[in-house]
What we know:
Layout: H1 20-26, E1 34-35, H2 45-48, H3 59-80, H4 85-95, H5 107-118, H6 122-144, H7 154-157, H8 167-175, H9 181-198, H10 208-227, H11 254-259, E2 266-267, E3 272-276, E4 279-283, H12 295-303
Antiparallel strand pairs: 1-2, 3-4
Amino acid sequence: MSDPEPTRITFETVDPTLSLDEQKRLVADSGRRRHLSWGMDFDSRALSLNPEIPDHWEDQVKELHRRNLQSARAGMVAEFGERGIDAKIDNFVAMGVKPFSVLAHHNALFHQVRQAFVIGAYYPALVGACALGERILNHLMLDMRGHFTATPEYKKVYRKDSFDDWRLPIDTLDAWGILLPDAVVEYRALMGLRHRSIHFNPETTNALRNDALAAIIHMRTIIEQQFASHAVRPWFIANTLGHAFIRKDYEDHPYIRAYFLPNCPFVGPLFGMAPGKGGWEFFDLPDYGDGDWTDDEFAAAYNDRDPTLVAGPTG
């Protein structure tokens, strides 16, 4: 008598109490799935608060912009109060869009920094932006250093529980390839602003708004570089339409494992999503078959998918 064929394990039947790594090892079609980069912490209202309407726009587009402007202004009044609302809107627009970001340590704190700037609390906004930059550096260093014990930089950082001299963590994270080049540039600029602002300098009060705005923009760019959920970055599969996915060879990268994978659903090309009571819900096919797809093959399967086959809620 021949042995019975082993039961095929899918994400519908795998033990949910196992770690994701163990589930991925056991599930038959893991080679045809990728992690969807997912983050919804963003604010694009600054784009709707621009009162200028180009003459070449069609009338219906002009009217839509007027309605969006009116709605956005009403929202600003409700959130920040009527008094001084024009100055508050100017501050809000000056900061620009709050970028799409994965859910990491910085989101709620950056929101508070932006709120302070809007209401004209420029020194708290300046100090808060600088402190947030330092907090992120410390998180990155403490989270990452255990993965780089064989490097020459490790001996300089392994005993410290925090880093108030930014040069050491910036240089170290740069050498380890954790900070992207543009983030390094922004961090060095923010470091100079931090030193001038936090340590006593009588000239600080003469440039509070400008310095606070500069610090916020430095932080916005750092967040865009390091934590963006949709962008051209080394760890994303290139040329996917509408969504970003983590490259297969980056799934074991310590930075991606710490900051992206915990919030990135593991999906196939026919996944679907819809708003639910507790946020967005994700749906997927139970089984994509055997064999491993390259990133390019996954991208092609996703980009060319038949909309009628996209997974959705059942029942």
